Amino acid sequence: MKFTKMQALGNDYIYINAMKEKVKHPSDLAKKLSDRHFGIGGDGVIFIDFSEKADVKMRMYNSDGTEGKLCGNGIRCVAKYVYDNEIVKNKIVKIETYNRIIETKIFQSRDKCIIKADSGKVKRGETNRRIIIGKMEYSGDCMFLDNAHLVVYVDCVEKIDLKDWNPYAQFNVEFVSVISRREIDMRVKEKGSGETMACGTGACAAAIACMMRKYVDNCVKVNMPGGNLLIEKERDHVFMTGEAKTVFEGEFDICLL
């Protein structure tokens, strides 16, 4: 079975063209392939398939085998994959996800591929949630962008010990420090994958949460360990812009897994 390893800000997934490759047990396959010691290694596996509603359809599975509803960094890589492989020849690519269709736009130069994605609406749930971890007390906002996010405001993201946050495993937890009106720092612990280098939907949720609190303007750079994303709010939609890269291609024997 052929695969392509891609990453966006270090958020790496294994991409399989399900229009050509048939997979019977995607959850089991995702767990085996994502293993960084015995498999290919990645935050999960994303399958690219036919769609009756859009140009293509994506299904993403976390490294623990659970199916995710949306991956912001992953969707930008899907756009690059289908454009590079001439599955879609337009630079505007519509991708069907778990719940909806997301439109992406490709800006390609000789050495970079930048993709802007209309991530839709971010909904806010409970605000000013009181969170106590050990002797520390934090404030957090619940945000929803297909996945459930808990945005936690901290003085310094580097000082947070993510091991303490197991009680909040039902969320993608984003730790945010506000740097200026146009910049925030973020670390993330993703449901089903643990800490990752970056999270696209998490960056959207964190930026919008900060906008709603009037901490930042409507255009903000989100710095993560793997790099940064530009998050913009236009009316009631949030747009995410960042790079996507192909790492390598390969082939594995599914019978040996």
Keywords:
19-stranded mixed beta sheet, mainly beta, globular, 47% strand
Write structural notes for this entry:
This protein has 257 residues and is mainly β. 14% of the residues lie in helices and 47% in strands. A hairpin with a 3-residue loop joins strand 14 and strand 15. The protein is globular and about 50 Å long.
Brief rundown of the structure:
The chain is mostly beta strands and 257 residues long.
Fold topology:
Blueprint: E1 2-8, E2 11-17, H1 26-34, E3 44-49, E4 56-62, E5 67-68, H2 72-84, E6 92-96, E7 101-108, E8 113-118, E9 123-124, E10 129-133, E11 136-145, E12 147-153, E13 172-180, E14 183-190, E15 194-196, H3 200-212, E16 219-224, E17 227-234, E18 237-243, E19 245-251
Parallel strand pairs: 2-3, 4-6, 12-13, 14-16
Antiparallel strand pairs: 1-2, 1-19, 3-4, 4-5, 6-7, 7-8, 8-18, 9-11, 10-11, 11-12, 13-14, 14-15, 16-17, 17-18
As a whole number of angstroms, the C-alpha radius of gyration is: 18 Å
| Poorly predicted ranges | none
Strand content: over 45%
- Individual helix count: 3
* Helix and strand composition category: mainly beta
Q: How many strand units?
A: 19
Mean pLDDT across all residues, rounded? Answer: 96
How far apart are the termini? 12 Å
Q: Assign a percent range to the helix content.
A: 10-25%
String of helices and strands: EEHEEEHEEEEEEEEEEHEEEE
Largest sheet: 19 strands, mixed
Shape designation: globular
